[in-house]
Design a protein that fits this description.
Elements lengths: L1 H15 L17 E5 L6 H6 L6 E5 L7 H6 L4 E5 L1 H10 L9 E9 L1 E5 L8 H11 L4 E4 L5 H12 L8 E4 L3 H9 L5 E5 H10 L3 E5 L24 E7 L5 H15 L2 H10 L10 H18 L5
Parallel strand pairs: 1-2, 1-3, 6-7, 6-8
Antiparallel strand pairs: 3-10, 4-10, 5-8, 5-9
Helix pairs in contact: 4-11
């Protein structure tokens, strides 16, 4: 009787115990990563997303659009790169080589939502009001962002296109940094800021800027902001990120790295980091080459409309 009771207590205790946190996979020679973060400094949002994948070393290349950073990866067989849309801008607008599509995509990592914001006293009350103003006369809306050709420039162009105006109607000022662009909007020099949410969330919390919406497919947990889609704006462009390897990577190492990312994504630590970062967890190791090709095609078309590329 005592033995049966003890067994019952042990079973009950096991059932009530919290599920164990899946351990982070131990690195091996095939999964040890030395990474170059292309186009971002150590404090940038892309660098924070890059930290989702443990690396033996990380080198940050914050130069304009990460030009030539991929060449550093190609020259070393033990190095991978973490890139976003800036690598495409470097290739198509600045002629950076080697080309991104010549590399091997290992995995998509988490994406960053883009926020559209105005000054607190802006007459643009909400996202629907922005669309109305763009539909009436897009040239009266002065957009602000960090770089020409970067994701915030593309989102501004998509907002104008959604309002049934051509890319030529876009008025966009590149301030060089997100901070300077935010100051330009807060001071009234520009009307609408487009930026990564993570880069301006402190300004939003302080009331320096007022958000109209974010570009995700759906609302993000813990972020009390509507999506642009809720206002009838069909713009869902996010700042994606890719882990890429040089074309010389072996099939065995590629498979091992993809397996590492898949196992990491299944851990509680990964989910916690994504939630804390305010990111969109669209991480995958599937169809990454197709994804990159689709992005290249889409961006090339937008650049042509904007007169950035002949």
């Amino acid at each position: 009787m005592l033995r049966a009771s003890l067994i019952a207590l042990l079973v009950l205790a096991a059932a009530c115990s919290p599920s164990p946190v899946p351990p982070t996979p131990s690195p091996t020679s095939e999964t040890t990563i030395n990474a170059i973060v292309v186009g971002a400094d150590e404090a940038g949002d892309l660098s924070r997303r890059a930290a989702l994948v443990p690396a033996g070393s990380r080198t940050f290349k914050p130069a304009h659009r990460g030009v030539d950073a991929l060449a550093d990866m190609v020259s070393r067989s033990d190095v991978l790169a973490i890139v976003d849309e800036r690598a495409i801008a470097g290739e198509l607008l600045d002629g950076a080589t080697p080309r991104l599509e010549e590399q091997v995509p290992v995995a998509r990592l988490a994406s960053a939502p883009i926020v559209v914001a105005v000054a607190p006293r802006s007459p643009i009350a909400d996202a629907a009001g922005l669309k109305k103003k763009l539909t009436e006369d897009a040239s009266t809306v002065r957009f602000a962002g960090a770089e020409i050709g970067a994701v915030e420039h593309l989102v501004a162009a998509l907002l104008v296109k959604d309002a049934e105006n051509g890319g030529g109607a876009l008025v966009f000022a590149a301030y060089g940094t997100v901070g300077e662009a935010a100051t330009g909007v807060a001071s009234g020099q520009s009307d609408v800021l487009v930026a990564r949410y993570a880069d301006v969330k402190a300004l939003l919390a302080a009331g320096t800027l007022r958000a109209l919406g974010v570009t995700g497919e759906s609302r993000l947990p813990g972020i009390d902001l509507p999506t642009l889609r809720e206002a009838g704006i069909d713009v869902t462009q996010t700042d994606w990120s890719l882990l890429v390897a040089p074309a010389s990577i072996t099939a065995a190492r590629l498979a091992a790295l993809r397996g590492l990312v898949d196992r990491l994504r299944a851990t509680a630590q990964w989910a916690d980091a994504v939630r804390a970062g305010g990111w969109i967890d669209d991480t995958t190791t599937q169809a990454t080459t197709t994804f990159l090709g689709t992005q290249l095609s889409r961006v090339t078309g937008l650049y042509a409309e904007l007169g950035l590329r002949r």
